[in-house]
Design brief:
about 170 residues, 5 helices, mainly alpha
């Protein structure tokens, strides 16, 4: 075992109390668990009403990251919509010219319809992309939290089976 007590683990994480365990350092903590003495790991996890707070904070951070991604994607999408609106204005202005043939008018109407189709297509693509990102992040964080708890519990169960029976029987 690389880490035999809480002080060593806190030193490795660069914190002086578990209250200072940031989301990033909690991920590092989970990665360090295989190198911890099981009892020390359990003592730390038992202190985690902070763990519940960490999970809440982690999901809060996910929500903020998701909102930032949405805002960034929304900004990009708004630029596409603005460009398509500008094209429609130009096409509509051209439609009002009196010297257009039927074929030219038909072509302009098709271009206006195409801008509407493109806007709808971009909106659908954006929604699928955002949905996929959110699912990946939620699965990743949820799995990480679950694995950390399962890992600690599994190590305790395994360690308990390896210990000799106190009754003296073999």
């Amino acid at each position: 075992m690389k880490y035999k007590n809480e002080a060593e683990i806190m030193r490795a994480l660069g914190i002086d109390t578990w209250r200072h365990l940031s989301k990033e350092k909690a991920v590092k903590f989970a990665a360090m668990m295989p190198d911890m003495d099981t009892e020390v790991a359990m003592k730390i996890v038992e202190q985690f009403p902070e763990f519940r707070k960490f999970a809440t904070d982690a999901f809060g951070a996910i929500e903020k990251a998701h909102e930032a991604t949405l805002a960034d994607g929304r900004h990009s999408l708004d630029q596409v919509y603005q460009a398509l609106r500008e094209k429609r204005v130009i096409f509509e202005r051209e439609l009002h010219r009196g010297d257009l043939t039927w074929e030219q008018r038909k072509h302009l109407l098709e271009l206006i319809q195409e801008t509407a189709r493109l806007a709808s297509q971009k909106d659908s693509e954006h929604k699928r992309h955002v949905d996929g990102l959110l699912r990946k992040v939620m699965v990743g964080v949820g799995s990480g939290l679950a694995l950390a708890v399962v890992f600690v519990g599994g190590r305790i169960l395994t360690q308990g089976k390896e210990e000799p029976d106190d009754s003296g029987e073999s």
